[in-house]
């Protein structure tokens, strides 16, 4: 069968146009490859509501858009920084058009982090004071190195606190 040049050009143009239309949508595989996760993980994010509802083609295939890709990237970053539960709440608020609620959730987490940071600074300051009050290593009572539990009991803190104390003392003696 011989096809004329004019016919082959029409076929090429229509195929090109068809490919361009298909390329306006992203497949599940495209999203997965874009952020280096499995196809099943993309479906899980969709089922969990981390990304907006997905349109389906007449044959049932998912038709993702750039909006879905952006939502998926955002969700992954939020999960890393805020945890899965809070990230889910934030993404749900965004998908439902409740931006002020999403921002309030973010602000709540920032306030929590600020309180934690303040507590850690206060603990470090208290441990630094305690470290300064400890006898030197040359004192006869401390002729050998203490285990962390023993040191903790001597200063009345938990082993975790003693570990922080040791770090504070090391920082104080080696500026």
Q: Key features?
A:
175 residues, mainly alpha, Multidrug-efflux Transporter Regulator, Chain: A, Domain 2, 2 domains, two-stranded antiparallel ribbon, 8 helices, 2% strand, disordered N terminus
The largest pleated sheet is described as: 2 strands, antiparallel
Percent of residues in helices = over 70%
Q: Find the CATH topology of the largest domain.
A: Multidrug-efflux Transporter Regulator, Chain: A, Domain 2
Which class best fits the helix and strand makeup? mainly alpha
Q: Roughly what is the average pLDDT, rounded to an integer?
A: 79
Helix run count: 8
Low-pLDDT parts are 1-5, 7-22
Q: Beta-sheet strand percentage?
A: under 5%
Into how many domains do the coordinates divide?
2
For the CA atoms, what is the radius of gyration? 30 Å
Give the second-level CATH assignment, the architecture of the largest domain.
Orthogonal Bundle
Give the N-to-C terminal Cα separation. Answer: 86 Å
- The order of strands across the largest sheet is 1-2
SSE ordering: HHHEEHHHHH
Top-tier CATH class of the largest domain: Mainly Alpha
The tally of beta strands, per DSSP, is: 2
Broad shape: elongated
């Amino acid at each position: 069968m011989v096809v004329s040049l004019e016919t082959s050009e029409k076929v090429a143009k229509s195929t090109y146009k068809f490919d361009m239309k298909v390329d306006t949508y992203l497949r599940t595989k495209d999203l997965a490859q874009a952020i280096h996760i499995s196809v099943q993980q993309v479906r899980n994010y969709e089922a969990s509501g981390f990304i907006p509802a997905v349109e389906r083609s007449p044959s049932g295939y998912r038709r993702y858009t750039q909006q879905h890709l952006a939502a998926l990237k955002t969700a992954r970053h939020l999960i890393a920084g805020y945890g899965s539960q809070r990230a889910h709440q934030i993404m749900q608020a965004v998908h439902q058009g409740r931006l002020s609620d999403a921002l309030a959730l973010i602000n709540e987490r920032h306030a929590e982090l600020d309180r934690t940071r303040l507590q850690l600074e206060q603990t470090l300051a208290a441990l630094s004071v305690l470290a300064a009050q400890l006898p030197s290593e040359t004192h006869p009572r401390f002729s050998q190195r203490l285990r962390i539990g023993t040191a903790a009991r001597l200063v009345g803190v938990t082993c975790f606190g003693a570990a922080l104390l040791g770090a504070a003392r090391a920082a104080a003696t080696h500026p």
